[in-house]
Every structure is written in C-alpha cells, then in structure tokens.
Write a structure and sequence with these properties.
alpha/beta; six-stranded mixed beta sheet; globular; binds (2S,3S)-3-hydroxy-2-methylbutanoyl-COA; 2-enoyl-CoA Hydratase, Chain A, domain 1; Rossmann fold; N-(1-d-carboxylethyl)-l-norvaline Dehydrogenase, domain 2; eight-stranded mixed beta sheet
C-alpha cells in the first residue's frame, strides 16, 4: 500500500505532504510517513528547513478515531510530535481547513506555524469525552496562556486563524491560495534563526482567577461530564511548576482514564452515529438528487415560521402561505423578530437579516406554490385537514416537486394516498422550535421514491439539521418512545410518586428536564380535548383549572414571574384526589423503579422499532434522542446506554413490573448481544 505521505525538495526545504482523505486523520500510516520524512530531512545536509502540509480539504483533523480501542501501532502521535520539536532544523506547519485535535498538536510541536486566513485550529477532544493526549494541554497554555487553553481544551470549539495569530498559536498568515509557496518562503526566512522556538521550553503562567471564573461560568454546561474537569486539571498542571515531562505524564494518565471510560465510548459512538444516520441503506449514495431551488411552507404558526427560517438562513427562498392575512402578518412578524433578536446578539449581520427576509414571500394563495420544488405543510394536526390539503397540492404544484408533511405522528402513507403522486410524498418532522432544534425525522412512506428520500436527507445537511430516516408508525421514532415514558410517569403519580421526584430522577440521570417539566414547557394542554367537564386524568384536571403550563404560570408546577418552578400544593391535592378515587394504594416509589418504568420502557420501545424496521439502526435511535430531546451525550443515547446497562438487567427490570419484553431485547439478554 502506498504511503499517504510523500516528500518534495524545494531547494534547501523539504516539504512533507500528507494525502489521507477525507480529513488527513493521523492514522498509523501517516505517523509512519511523517517519521520517515523527518528522518530524511535530518539525514540530508542540504536540507535547512522542513514544511509539513496536507493535500485535500484540511490539515490533519486529528488522530484517527477509528483506531481508538485497538492496539496502537508505532510510532504514537506524541513520539512523532517530539521528533518534530526536537529536530535541529526548523519545522513549519502549513495550515488550511481545520487543524483539530492531534492536528493542532502537530502544529504546536512545530517551531513555526503559517496558516491561510480561513483556517481554524482547535482541540475538540472534549467533545469525544477526551482531552488532547499528545501534548496539547501542556503546549497550548505555554504558547497562548491559561484562559485560551481552557476555552480550547475544555469547551472544544475551534478558533479562527486571526484569533490564533493574536494568541501566538500561528506566526504568519499565508495567501488564501498560496499556502504551499508561502510556507516554503517562510521556511527559508527562518531556516537559520536560532534558538529554535519550542513550545515545551516556554513557561505557562498560573492564572487561578481565570480557572475559577471559567469553572463557574461553565458549571451548568459541564454538569455530568468527566472530560472537561480533566482538561482543566491538565491545563493547571502546566502552570503549577511541574516540568514539561511531568505535565505530559499527567496528561497521559488523565487521557487514558477518559479513554477507558464509558463517557468517551458514548461520545465517540455518537460522533460516528450522527454521520451514519445520514446514510440510507440500500440506496446508491451517488443517486441523482432533485434540485431544491424554491420551498413552499403552508402555515405561518410557530412550526411553519421556524421551518421557513431554516431555508431562508440557508439562502433558499420560501413562499409561506396562510389562510388569513392577520395570521400571515403575525407569522412573518415573528420570523423577522427572531432574526432581529439574533442580530441584536451579534449572531447575524443586519444585511443577513435583510437577505433572509427578502427571500420570504408571504401569500394567501395556495396557487403561489405551483413552481416550488418542495412544499412542507405545517397545518393543524388533523388527518382530514392534511388529506384535503394534499389533494389540493396535488392539483396545484408542478410535477416532480416533493410534498412533505411536518406531522409529528400521523400516517404518511394515508396522507400520500390523497395524491396521485405518493412517490413524491414523505414526512419532514421538525422539532420545536424548528429553527433551533437540530433533529429532523424524515419519514419514508411505503411509496416514497429513493431519490425523494435522498434529496431530503441531503437537504437536511444544507439547512444544518441532523436527519434520521423513520418508517411510518405512530410517533415515528422519538415520540413513539416518549409515549411509554409519559404513560408510566403519570401512572407513578397515581401510585405515590410526585412530579418533583420523577423529574429529579431524570435530571440527575442527565436529561435537561423531566417529563413534567417538559410538559409544562411544551404546554399541558397539547392534545387536550378542551372539554372542562370531561375529567378523566390528572392532565384533564389540570387543564380544566387552566393549569396549562409555564405559559399560564401554572401546570404541574407553580411558576413565579421569572418562570421559576415550585411544587404546587394544588397539584398535590389533585393527584391525591385522583389516587384516592382510584383506590390505588399509596406507596413509597424508589428512584430505581422510576428509571425502570420510564427509561427501560423507552429502550423496550426502541427494540420494537428496530424489530419493525422503523429505524435503520440502533444508533439512529440514539441520534434522535440526543438531538431531539437532550439525552445526555455522555450516555450515548438510549440504545447505547442499554448496552452499557446490560440487556439482562433491563429485561429483569421490565419483567419485575410486568411489561412485555421485546424479542430483540430478550435475545440480547440471552446471548449477551448488544444493540450497537
Ligand atoms: N478520525 C477518523 N475519521 C474521521 C475523523 C477522525 N478524526 N474526522 C472525520 N472523520 C470521518 C468521518 O467519520 C466521515 O466519515 C468523514 O471523515 C468526513 O467527516 C491524540 C485523541 C474535520 C470538521 O474530533 O470534526 O486527535 O462518514 O462528515 O463535515 O489528542 O470531521 O465519510 O465514512 O465530519 O467536512 C480529534 C473530528 C480526534 C475532529 C470535517 N479530532 N472531525 O467535517 O466531514 S481525537 C476531531 C470533525 C485526537 C489527540 C486526540 C469533522 C471535520 P464517513 P465529516 P465534515
């Protein structure tokens, strides 16, 4: 196999080039090639300086994550970086694209760094539940100081070349299209400069105030995660007077602890799961897609407005339709307000707001959708309403257009049957707020054409959504699994648990909020029959008293003017009244029972979803719950978590409460198999 690394001589400069698509990951062959190139430079008297650069779209984007968990082939990345730094001849990193993780660490081992203005550098290992394990936590503070080192390592967001330049992480900016030549010229310029600047020989000043402020500012964001604290500890180690070697040893120790932990396995699982979700089994990835130049959205309510913003922000014109002028004006007004709020926060420039709003065409006429390439309806959640609407669209919209429903659980096949073109119909289930939530469930009808599905999955990337293919079943993937959780949560109230206890268990598990907090946020009255005299559940009783949730300052909780929740004595009375009338004995409910009845039942539903092929793969279900409901990333999603809990334990927990266990879950328990 040819090496991904080649070398070129340019006079007295040796250029070491990596060509390891798609992201020049620093796999074994790359590391071996770098080692050989460095040896070649050291052995040749005529060579006075070395440039390391990459072909393709980016400089090294990190260690090869697929190698983790397997025996590491020599030389390890730290060894290669030490070879670079200890070189007697200057080594220059020529950076473009995203120099991330180990890639950033390679640049820090170099003596000089030159980058194109569009380059970004960063150490996102914390997003994989890790830390920069090749000297990054020790070199960044020495070059750029503690505050930036904390930001880069413990939060993991990349920084621009300009910011890196200011911080000293980059020495020179190249022309956007002349990096190779500029890097060689820079190498010649510094070829005889001594002493060679070595990051490991610099001293990092301690900055306890910065550390304390950073920890305080990010406490909520880091809740439940192991890696951020480890990154912070390593950065502090670089400033406590330890030698560089002691710091490296500490970094290695902390890195291995994280690497062996469940959290990193979970976060690495999700890294690949998210990318895998974009792939449709059985469809050629090279299938021709339908061009989507103009989108129609029907309904200018919360969902329709949010959906429209996704396309407007991606530069795709939208025609938005409402029945009444007042509703149309309100809807477009909300869109404008949302954009202006983003601009006020500096997230958008005013001209971007103008551009987005200029691409929005409000209308009361369905006929104005005739030339749209994709039409998405976000109207009232009624099958009759949707079937009638699709029948009209079938007559109005040009042939070849894709007709999508934003329904959150209705049968797409039934909707498609109300048109003469079921092959062009599918579901696009956005999550509210649609312009914020990243998850998009793409519901594949029985007759949905392959190119229609592939077009929408590709379009999801364009509008920065994480899309997952779902089959046609009630609630698709996410909401279908939400149902057993909500049913059991309400039953537990009748048996003695409180909303606070159930929510606490879920928040301690790592969810952003529990079932009742979520109900209050979304609206207790969603799906309520609106008949105040018909009180058949605790929810009915709350709604009948106007306790519709946060929007009414009262739901399962009472809310003050800042929407801070507090347990409601009135709700406790309502629950006690219902419970006593149902003659259910009140008993102590353990936290463990809450987990078994609300989370194990979700896993059971996920297993049924897989058995029925309503999801392509278990990791897709994980992606749905991470991006649609805030499942803690350090637990990898419901199905990954089930594997870490162990199917045996889950089956036992379900059987203890009399649930019918899915066959797939049972067979995993018997065989020791895993969903993943
Ligand atoms: N290793 C292996 N494969 C990788 C990879 C990596 N580091 N990064 C991306 N891929 C694959 C990805 O799975 C996909 O594969 C394809 O490349 C395109 O990726 C020792 C321990 C660079 C910003 O965390 O952030 O260094 O699906 O779809 O949208 O301290 O990839 O095509 O088969 O994401 O253009 C640290 C991870 C590693 C960066 C490009 N580095 N990558 O985004 O393409 S740990 C990272 C990214 C480390 C050291 C530590 C993004 C990208 P497939 P893509 P993209």
């Amino acid at each position: 196999m040819t090496s991904p690394i080649t070398t070129e001589r340019h006079g007295d400069v040796l250029v070491i080039i990596s060509n390891n698509p798609p992201v020049n990951a620093l796999g074994a062959a790359v590391r071996q090639g770098l080692e050989a190139g460095l040896k070649e430079a050291a052995a040749d008297e005529a060579i006075k300086a070395v440039v390391i650069r990459c072909d393709g779209k980016t400089f090294f984007a990190g260690a090869d994550i697929t190698e983790f968990g397997r025996p590491m082939q020599e030389p390890g990345l730290p060894t290669v970086i030490d070879m670079i730094e200890s070189s007697e001849k200057p080594v220059i990193a020529a950076i473009h694209g995203t120099a991330l993780g180990g890639g950033c660490e390679v640049t820090l081992g170099c003596h000089y760094r030159i980058a194109v203005p569009s380059a970004k550098i960063g150490t996102p290992e914390v997003k994989l539940g890790l830390l920069p394990g090749a000297g990054g936590t020790q070199r960044i503070p020495r070059v750029a100081g503690v505050a930036l080192a904390l930001e880069m390592t413990a939060k993991g967001d990349p920084i621009s070349a300009a910011r890196a330049m200011t911080a000293g992480l980059i020495d020179r900016l190249a022309g956007e299209n002349s990096l190779a030549a500029d890097a060689i010229a820079f190498a010649r310029e510094v070829a005889s400069v001594r002493p060679l600047p070595r990051a490991s020989e610099k001293t990092a000043e301690a900055d306890p105030e910065a550390v304390a402020a950073f920890k305080k500012e990010n406490a909520k964001r880091f809740r439940g995660f192991d890696a951020p604290a480890a990154n912070i500890a390593c950065v502090e180690k670089a400033t406590d007077g330890s030698t560089f070697a002691e710091g490296i040893a500490f970094e290695r120790q902390e890195f291995m602890k994280l690497m062996m932990g469940v959290q990193s396995a979970a976060q690495r699982h999700l890294f690949f799961a998210e990318r895998q979700a974009a792939k449709i089994d059985g469809i050629d990835p090279a299938i021709a897609l339908r061009p989507i130049k103009k989108v129609g959205v029907i309904g200018a309510g919360t969902m329709g407005g949010g959906i429209s913003m996704n396309f407007l922000s991606a530069g795709i014109p939208v025609t938005i339709v409402e029945m009444q002028q007042e509703a149309l004006d309100r809807g477009t007004g909300v869109i404008r307000k949302n954009y202006e709020a983003s601009a006020a926060k500096g997230r958008l420039k005013p001209e971007q707001v103008a551009l987005a709003m200029g691409a929005l065409t409000p209308t009361l006429n369905l006929e104005d959708l005739a030339d749209c390439d994709l039409v998405i309806e976000a109207v009232y959640e009624s099958m009759d309403v949707k079937k009638e609407l699709f029948g009209k669209l079938d007559k109005i919209v040009k042939q070849g257009a894709i007709l999508a429903s934003n329904t959150s659980y209705l049968n797409i096949d039934e909707i498609a049957a109300s048109t003469s073109r079921p092959q062009d119909v599918l579901g696009m289930h956005f999550f509210s707020p649609a312009n914020v939530m990243k998850l998009l469930e793409v519901v594949r009808g029985a007759k949905t054409a392959d190119d229609v599905l592939a077009t929408v999955m590709a379009l999801a990337k364009t509008i920065k959504k994480v899309a997952v293919v779902s089959g046609v079943c009630h609630g698709f993937i996410g909401n279908r699994m939400l149902m057993p959780r909500q049913v059991e949560a309400n039953k537990l109230l009748m048996e003695g648990a409180t909303p606070e206890q159930i929510d606490r268990v879920h928040v301690e598990f790592g969810m952003p909020m529990g079932p009742f907090q979520m109900s209050d946020l979304a609206g207790v009255d969603i799906g309520w029959h609106r008949d105040e005299t018909r009180i058949e559940s605790i929810r009915d009783a709350l709604c009948a008293e106007g306790r519709w949730g946060q929007k009414k300052s009262a739901g399962f909780y009472d809310y003050d003017e800042k929407r801070n929740p507090s347990p409601s004595p009135r709700v406790a009375e309502i629950i006690e009244d219902f419970r006593s009338r149902s003659n259910l004995p009140r008993r102590e409910i353990t936290d463990e029972e809450i987990i078994e009845r609300t989370l194990y039942t979700m896993v059971n539903e996920g297993a049924l979803i897989l058995e029925e092929k309503m999801a392509q793969r278990a990791s897709d279900i994980d992606v749905v719950w991470i991006y649609g409901y805030g499942w803690p990333v350090y637990r990898g999603g419901p199905m990954f978590w089930a594997d870490t809990e162990g199917a045996k334990k889950i089956v036992a927990g379900l059987e203890k409460h009399g649930f019918k266990v899915a066959e797939l879950l049972k067979s995993n328990a018997e065989s020791g198999g895993r969903f993943k």
